[in-house]
Amino acid sequence: GIQVEQSPPDLILQEGANSTLRCNFSDSVNNLQWFHQNPWGQLINLFYIPSGTKQNGRLSATTVATERYSLLYISSSQTTDSGVYFCAVFFWWNNAGNMLTFGGGTRLMVKP
Amino acid sequence: DAGVTQSPTHLIKTRGQQVTLRCSPKSGHDTVSWYQQALGQGPQFIFQYYEEEERQRGNFPDRFSGHQFPNYSSELNVNALLLGDSALYLCASSSAGGGRTDTQYFGPGTRLTVL
């Protein structure tokens, strides 16, 4: 199956700093999503981005499908950005459904 | 527009017992997937239901079973609970049969503790 690796595993930032989170995947994918998991466990959709670049406020994401990686940029970080960021992918094969394979996550702590 | 809902929020069981978790998909969605998230790890896919049938299954034993109802809601059942089944169980829904370009939306999860 597809392997997904995220880096760095842990990140500590001072409020206001910028950061880049990376997601590498081992095979071609049809879908890639970025999530933020809050301290209560809720997975919040950030981006659906199988290719290209998208921006939403202070967050932006870029996926280079041909090189099998995606980047999540957080600018001017705030304490509310703390939590775990997950990258998840799937490859649509033979109408088998859209099972997501998750990376191990990047645990972000933003200090005031 | 209601999002994905799950019940109960928390659950404590003892080894050997059976548990049922419930999920209602986002309005307009017809496909439900279940994931298990152990502490400190990413979610792992358990199975997906579409048209009331299990369409795809991850690497989980037969102790894990499920059901989808005509209104698209779903249940996850776990028999003969083990300590290792302690985890956050997440339900996700998507539309159009979970197509290749569809986005999955997750519920708040059920935190199961097995003592």
Describe the structure.
The complex is a heterodimer of chains A (112) and B (115). With 112 residues, chain A is an all-beta fold. Chain A is built from no helices and eleven strands. In chain A, the strands form two sheets. In chain A, strands 2, 4, 5, 9, 10 and 11 form a six-stranded mixed beta sheet that branches. In chain A, strands 1-3-8-7-6 form a five-stranded antiparallel beta sheet, with no helix packed on it. Chain A is globular and about 45 Å long. By secondary structure, chain B is mainly β. Chain B is 0% helix and 50% strand. In chain B, the strands form two sheets. In chain B, strands 2, 4, 5, 6, 9, 10 and 11 form a seven-stranded mixed beta sheet that branches. A four-stranded antiparallel beta sheet of chain B has the order 1-3-8-7, with no helix packed on it. Chain B is globular. The termini of chain B are far apart.
Task: Write a brief caption for the model.
The complex is a heterodimer of chains A (112) and B (115). Chain A has no helices and eleven strands. Chain A has strands at 4-7, 10-14, 19-25, 31-37, 43-48, 52-56, 59-64, 69-74, 83-90, 101-102, 106-111.
Helix content of chain A: under 10%
Number of strands of chain B: 11
Strand content of chain B: over 45%
Main sheet: strands, sense, barrel of chain B:
7 strands, mixed
User: Topology as H/E string of chain B?
Assistant: EEEEEEEEEEE
Distance between the termini of chain B: 37 Å
Number of strands of chain A: 11
- Share of helical residues of chain B: under 10%
How far from one another are the termini of chain A? 40 Å
Helix-and-strand structural type of chain A: mainly beta
- Spans where pLDDT lies below 50 across 5 or more residues of chain B: none
Oligomer: heterodimer
Mean of pLDDT of chain B: 92
Residues in β-strands, percent of chain A = over 45%
Radius of gyration of chain B: 13 Å
Largest interface: A-B, 25 and 30 residues
Low-confidence stretches of chain A: none
Mean pLDDT of chain A: 92
- Number of helix segments of chain B? 0
| Structural class label of chain B | mainly beta
Q: What is the radius of gyration of chain A?
A: 14 Å
